[in-house]
């Protein structure tokens, strides 16, 4: 069965699956004037699926006026250069990930464990470099769909962000938290600083939301905050490795 090219999460907020039904997701916010803000752009192979998702929403690449990356990894920024070319929209990234987006490479991975050192030696982590038009900061509220707040959640990458849309009580976690075989933190070898990732994930427990969109895994439509709070409460102290 074919997967829907776009799934409406709330009025004006959509998930666009770019790998499988929810293995890798992009998101889109639609403003009252019809303009679109795209969040994450998947792998380099993702743009056709993003364009199909936009079409399912009744939108065209020309409607996209901003592209926001939660962080500079190939499965989130791989399609950014192509989508920027098709849309003419500027790309926005947290200031600490700007150099990586512009160089088209992932930040160095956490080498504090043997698995991390192995992952760090593997080829990959490259994607088409993309000029960054806007450098984001923690707490910044983007003029998008009534206001989208930038929430710094570094650790998965130095400048990793999550996004909170207060109007619909929607949280987009980026890779701070996955929903793959249940709610969980990013695997340690994929992080630039796993201990920091564990600490900053707890920021998400204190925000006000109901609906959660994950860039890896399906959304939680009801009780999302409680699901994340419950998971974080079950983990050991943020400074202690699992």
TrEMBL record:
Residues 23-216 form the Metallo-beta-lactamase domain. PANTHER family: METALLO-BETA-LACTAMASE DOMAIN-CONTAINING, METALLO-BETA-LACTAMASE DOMAIN-CONTAINING PROTEIN. InterPro entries: Metallo-B-lactamas, NDM-1-like, RibonucZ/Hydroxyglut_hydro. It comes from Pseudonocardia acidicola. This is MBL fold metallo-hydrolase. It comes from the Bacteria. The lineage of its organism: Bacteria, Bacillati, Actinomycetota, Actinomycetes, Pseudonocardiales. It holds the Pfam family Lactamase_B.
């Amino acid at each position: 069965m074919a997967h829907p090219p776009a799934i409406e999460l709330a009025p004006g907020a959509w998930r666009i699956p770019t790998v499988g039904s929810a293995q890798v997701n992009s998101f889109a916010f639609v403003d009252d004037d019809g303009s679109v803000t795209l969040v994450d752009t998947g792998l380099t192979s993702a743009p056709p699926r993003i364009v199909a998702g936009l079409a399912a929403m009744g939108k065209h690449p020309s409607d996209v006026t901003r592209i926001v990356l939660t962080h500079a990894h190939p499965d989130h920024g791989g399609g950014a250069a192509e989508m920027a070319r098709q849309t003419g929209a500027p790309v926005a990234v947290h200031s600490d990930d700007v150099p990586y987006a512009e160089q088209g490479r992932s930040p160095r991975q956490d080498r504090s464990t043997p698995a991390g050192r192995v992952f760090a030696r593997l080829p990959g982590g490259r994607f088409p470099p993309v000029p960054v038009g806007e450098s984001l900061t923690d707490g910044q509220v983007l003029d998008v769909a009534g206001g989208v707040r930038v929430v710094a959640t570094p650790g998965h990458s130095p400048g990793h962000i999550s996004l909170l849309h207060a109007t619909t009580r929607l949280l987009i976690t980026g890779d701070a938290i996955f929903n793959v075989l249940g709610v969980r933190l990013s695997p340690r070898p994929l992080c630039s600083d796993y201990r920091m990732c564990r600490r900053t994930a707890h920021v998400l427990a204190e925000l006000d939301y109901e609906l959660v969109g994950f860039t890896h895994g399906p959304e939680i439509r009801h009780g999302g905050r409680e699901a994340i709070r419950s998971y974080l409460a079950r983990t050991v102290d943020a400074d202690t490795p699992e």
